[in-house]
Specification:
Length: about 170
């Protein structure tokens, strides 16, 4: 997403890459490897590291984004990152309060071409992103700030469900 939706994407990554509501301890076998790898730090690592669900906010990476913006086309920076990082089995979550953010629509098109399912998180009428998505979650608001306020409980619910599914 853009603006506040970009911040939301970073927030989502934070919830997925570490424990959200559950403590996600590393498996015992990995804990043992950590302790073998470093006698001094291994135990602490084993106690503190948490299993994560791989997630990347495609709105960061300033050097890449600005290089692509300068050298190619700024509307395609998210699509380029999706093309570089994405693989079969991934999911693309496109966040756009209007559902009509061109850069997100380009990224959704790239995702579809890569056979990566697209989930849209929007407001208003869902816009073109809802039409392009495999699943569209459209919150019932028109004003940007209200849409963003309703996106928070939606993506927290998604994070909770994912955490339960993968870390039960």
């Amino acid at each position: 997403g853009n603006g506040g939706s970009s911040a939301d994407s970073e927030h989502i990554v934070g919830e997925l890459m570490k424990g959200f509501c559950k403590k996600r301890q590393v498996p015992e076998a990995f804990a043992g490897k950590l302790m073998e790898a470093d006698k001094e730090r291994g135990k602490y690592l084993a106690e503190k590291l948490q299993q994560g669900l791989p997630a990347i906010a495609l709105t960061g990476h300033t050097a890449l984004s600005t290089a692509y913006l300068n050298d190619v086309d700024g509307l395609l920076t998210i699509a380029q990152q999706l093309y570089g990082y994405g693989k079969k089995g991934d999911v693309f979550l496109g966040i756009s309060t209007s559902g009509n953010s061109e850069n997100i629509l380009y990224a959704a098109a790239a995702a579809r071409a890569m056979e990566i399912p697209v989930i849209a998180l929007t407001g208003k009428d869902g816009g073109r992103l809802a039409e392009a998505a495999d699943v569209a979650i459209i919150v019932p608001e028109q004003e940007t700030y209200r849409i963003q306020e309703l996106h928070l409980p939606v993506y927290h619910a998604l994070c909770l469900m994912l955490e339960e599914r993968f870390f039960g």
